[in-house]
Amino acid sequence: MYKLIIYFALVLTPLISFSQKEDNNWIFGVGQYDLPGNIYRLNHIQFTNDTFKVKLLNRNFPFFTTCSIISDSSGNLLCYTNGLNLYNKNHSLLFNGNDFQSSSQFPYGYPFDRSVLILPLPDSPLTYIMIDGSHVDIGIDIITTELRYSLIDFSLQSGNGGVTLKKVIINNSTDTLNVGLLSSVRHSNGIDWWVLTTKFESNHYRKFIITGKGIEFHDDQIIGDTVHNGLGTAVFSPSGCWYSRYLNYGKAANPDGALYLYRFDRTTGELSAPIYKHFPQPEYFGGVAFSPNSRFLYVSKFLQILQYDLQASDILASETVVAEYDGFLDENGVPTRFYGLQLAPDNKIYGNIPGFNTRYLHVIDQPNLPGAASNVIQHAIYLPAQNFGTLPNLPYFRLGPAEISCDSLISATATTAPGQSPVIRVWPVPAVDVLYFSADVVWEEPLHLVLFDAYGRIVLERRDLRLSPTATVTLEELPSGPYFYGLLQRNGQIVKSGKIIRTR
């Protein structure tokens, strides 16, 4: 039986059953030197249908909060940006992809969170549109003075792509706008894209729509409380029915925090039913993300992660603390507190660390579940390179045409569709000290884990591995190198097998 497990581990390859994998690659790094000799290093995370893989990129590109990236619908990397330049799939400068911002002014990368978006141009399979902005310092604040678009054509340069239109000012975007926090969601037709931003220190939203003709102004809307200029995140729910912002604003040494939540109509672009919560000083750093099923809203606020139930009659009253900073310090003494959040293709939410270079990411492992069952695993991922407060700005690409009401979409966007086999996930790969096994459904039966080395020798065995919420397997006693695993049910049936690598 064990030989059979090794056979499966060596020859089976996960099958890809659907496309819309434009967010399958994440690349990010640091805004300060990570190695002697002024050399940067980058983290490259690749998501498959069941595995989280991370590898080191020895590329001398600085990242300082700003990051946007796009893959094709099959998950093949196309290009990415640090806000200054565009890089292609070979990690070289994209043709005509330089100087979107001044590298002399921002030698460590562009420092404004969520200030760039890269999206497929509708009806143009090889053309993508990048949205960014110009900025100006007005004393203690930095504002965006206009939004711009650039077109990237991947039929050029032997498929490596090139910029054909560059930094074209978008009509009706010249104004005093809050810096960064650009967000997007598919139109109800499943083809076009909405893009939202806000005017400086106001409750005035400015909306744009991307069609096959390019990007154009749609309308303005005044609604809800004042949206302050600050650091944070703006994001739409996977269902497209909700829009939220969380930010820190005011004095840098003692900032306030604010949460904004709205219903959103993907057909008209209309915001409605505003909800606002003020978090009094001091609220350093934070972010927001929705669960894959769009039922729960997560807010990270430096020392806590909060969960809100969007099905509750009083959403703010449903607030639940799902994580408190556990005091963990990394190897350089950096506190691994909470900052940005980003929903990933594996239906987990990943969180980064504020204020310092560090190699750790947090994970909300079961974000579709209420309260403690959401299973926040602090400092769960150890990256091969440092990261400075950077996560990619990505919309939810798997949203199609709106054929049912928003009130029905909670169940319609469940992780596992009816009739679909549950997915067991093994992450991260490579692993450092800890390997995690989890499922996208509640898995009651304990499994038998067998781990082999490259010579087929059993080096670790667990007969009571429970996937719900997550099984944690410690690898500290194992030498670095490749290993093969098999997960078996009581009847001996293999439910999953594969290869992992232990590294440090």
Number of strands: 34
The overall number of domains is 2
Which descriptor suits the 3D outline? globular
Report the top-level CATH class of the largest domain: Mainly Beta
CATH fold naming of the largest domain? Methylamine Dehydrogenase, Chain H
* Structural class label: mainly beta
Order of neighbouring strands in the sheet with most strands = 1-2-3-28-29-32
Number of helices: 2
Indicate the proportion of strand residues: 35-45%
Largest sheet: 6 strands, mixed
How would you explain this protein's 3D organization?
There is one protein chain. This protein has about 500 residues and is mostly beta strands. The chain has 2 domains: about 20-395, 7 Propeller (Methylamine Dehydrogenase, Chain H); about 425-500, Immunoglobulin-like (Sandwich). About 5% of the residues lie in helices and about 45% in strands. It is built from 2 helices and 34 strands. The protein has helices at about 1-10, 410; strands spanning about 25-30, 40-45, 50-55, 70, 75-80, 85-90, 115-120, 125-135, 140-155, 160-170, 175-180, 185, 195-200, 200-210, 215-225, 230-235, 240-250, 255-265, 270-280, 285-290, 295-300, 305-310, 320-325, 340-345, 350, 360-365, 375-385, 425-430, 435-440, 445-450, 460-465, 470-475, 480-490, 495-500. The protein has a 6-stranded mixed β-sheet, with no helix packed on it. Strand 8 and strand 9 form a beta hairpin. The longest helix is centred in the first third of the chain and has 10 residues, at about 1-10. The protein is globular. The two termini are about 30 Å apart.
